[in-house]
Amino acid sequence: MSGRSDWNPESYARFGGLRLRPALDLLAQVGELPKGDIVDLGCGNGAAGPALAARYAGRRIIGLDASPAMLASARKGGAYHQLIEGDAAAWRAEAPVALVFSNAALHWLSDHAALMPNLAAQLAPGGTLAVQMPRQYGAPSHRFLRDFAAEMFPDRFDLAAWRAPVSPPVEYHRMLSGLGRVNVWETDYVQRVEPVADGHPVRRFTESTAMRPYLDLMSQAEIAEFLARYEAALAAAYPIEPDGSVLFPFRRLFFTLTL
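^ thats the sequence. predicted structure below, dont judge the formating
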């Protein structure tokens, strides 16, 4: 993971259950693997580490992330044999690996047409590249961030040429089908986001991820103004349930590529 400011593991972990389920769904679609290490690329706070360690007991589990704070949190879990601070786009395996597993990380990187084949090239014969990325960019939760930032602070946010960092599923199938056996799918999760003491629950969900690049370029006064507008719009798009929770549809794209 990357960003101008470092990640906040506590904020990110607040919705750990909702963020972990896609990782487990992805892992369930990984079949038999050849010998070799397991790499958790963009491992974040290590949420997927215990599941990887349990599934592949006896193998070396390696985590890589660009955030020192997230790596420090991942280290506490004890699931990884090695943790590396680095850029996922520049990572190269010391020896071919059995599995490159990436949950909710590669959408922060550009040029997927080059990135994904480069990652596949790190695999041993019979190895698998397994990736999950959010594809929520057209939903109100993410569209409001772009629209309001560009309107309120045009000097910093010129989004006229903006393109979603994650392509439609068919594009990944076309991109990877010449390399091996490809399985691509999407899931819309209807997430029940628990009530929060301060603010709209969806705002608390996005503030540790999608909102970060915007807030990094605002002053404290600007942040307050931006959040007030964002919260008001979220309240209309995602009404609060009687118990204070919110039903928050969230789309994620998955694929596995097996050589």
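Residues 23 and 122 are 21 Å apart (CA to CA).
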